[in-house]
Design goal:
By secondary structure, this protein is of the alpha+beta class. The protein contains 18 helices and 26 strands. An eight-stranded mixed sheet has the order 6-9-10-26-25-24-19-12, with helices on both faces. The protein is globular.
Amino acid sequence: MHAYRSHTCADLSTENVGDKVRLSGWVHRVRDHGGILFIDLRDHYGMTQVLCDPDSAAFADVEKVRSEWCVRIDGEVKARDPELVNAKIPTGAIEVFVRGIEVLGASKELPLQVFGDQEYPEETRLRYRYLDLRREKMQKNMIMRSDVVSSIRQRMWGQGFKEFQTPIITASSPEGARDFLVPSRLHPGKFYALPQAPQQFKQLLMVSGFDKYFQIAPCFRDEDPRADRSPTDFYQLDLEMSFVEQQDVFDTIQPVLTGIFEDFGGGKAVDQDWPQISYKDAALWYGSDKPDLRNPIKMQVVSEHFAGSGFAIFAKLLEQEGTQIRAIPAPTGGSRKFCDRMNAFAQKEGLPGMGYIFWREKTADSVAQELGIPVKDAQAKLKSGEVEGGMEAAGPLAKNIGPERTEAIRQQLGLTVGDAAFFLGGKPKAFEGVAGRARNVIGTELGLTDENRFAFAWIVDFPIYEKDAESGKIDFEHNPFSMPQGGMDALMGDPLEVLGYQYDLACNGYELVSGAIRNHKPEIMFKAFEIAGYGKDEVEKRFGGMVNAFQYGAPPHGGCAAGIDRIVMLLAEEANIREVILFPMNQRAEDLMMNAPNDPMPDQLMELGLRVIPQD
């Protein structure tokens, strides 16, 4: 018999009754039922119940074991009594009577329990991640991650892509985030960098004549952490293709992701129609370039209804250049209680509040207030038809702008009795983020957001440049390596009107994919950087390898990258990306388990020619 096991803890069934077996695993829990000891023995594959009574020679040793001890069990398979069968596990029809036990690894008192669903502080979970990973949910998440990566590889190979590995140690290259720098021992005072992405290398592969490249690539960025982003490193499906246009990239990645979400999405519907929405429209309609299309709400501009109106705040605001008033429709949100909740939300977001109008059936109270008569008389007038019933608008804004403007807003938004609308104003970039978050909250609270589907959308037509509000300087707003729509001709006009062949894929409010058709012509690249204030010498210094390569017959090419961690986070229905990463950092970019970052040894610094300057 094998030294540690003849079967896994998921293998045994009634077909094995009477067999002598050997199992190894962890003690999930111990139960004492009237002197008979029951152990749920767990390994990577499943769980088997083992038992021992005082007649067994191993009883004294079994009495000593505790939760999470690693043990080897020798025993005999027996059928459970019919009324004791556990249909929830594959081995639930049998149990193993213990004849012998060996402790392979005893455990200290546990800082967190593996059995059960107890919640523990994140600091405890990360410090003892190897214990946290033994928990059933974490095992499932990590197995899913492995299976997703395997499926992605199969699908990419099936489309004729070749997998190549690009360097991990390279030159520093600003790509929108801070680099992790690596000091060189052989070249004192100089530094390598960990790649933020394989961007330049995968483009060089296209110049090298490879037609379809991909890899599951590690990327390193010194970023501020948040729930859906790791602060140090992450993995992405990175791909690049030659002789393609934007739609070719879309047509390549869509079946890969559709298949992944269908196979691992737990039965949720996967939208087959992926609309293409301009960056400008996404900001207007959804307040975000990663909209959640499960929520049907679309925001609209309603400035004309407030210009010159009795609501002075919005009327005066619209006298300033570049300002707008936008409405967030809220079907079924037409109650003062809900409107007050949303107003409180806006205040938590740092705004004075959020204007609203809601529509309701005309009441005797409102008629009495409007006509200055007793409620009883108002009831009579409504009943007789002297005062017309029907719908009325309520809320402070409705009173200020009057019934005609209010009705025009209602008709524009397509609302009716029981609905509401919320309003934000100013320069769009200043309030779009809050408006987008408000839209999400409204959709969730009113039950408008369909939680049982994955909704995808391509966001396209990103502007390449933006102007700094204070300095007036033109700089890149998005990827500087994207081909401008219109090529060189587009760069001869207003930079703020230049759009790039750049695109993101949003799913359920998260950015899953980002990519572009690349600017492969040196003269267009130099001009694009010149507009942003970067001279030819600086471009050659920063991106010399790629710029030089483009002078030797570069093909048109493009690609994208899909975030593996974020994809698995969505599939596992987790709100925090650390739940699908084996050994993540905490919010302060610290590895509590391995004590990183830590202080280097003096001889290490001396060898590298470095000195640490203490921070005040």
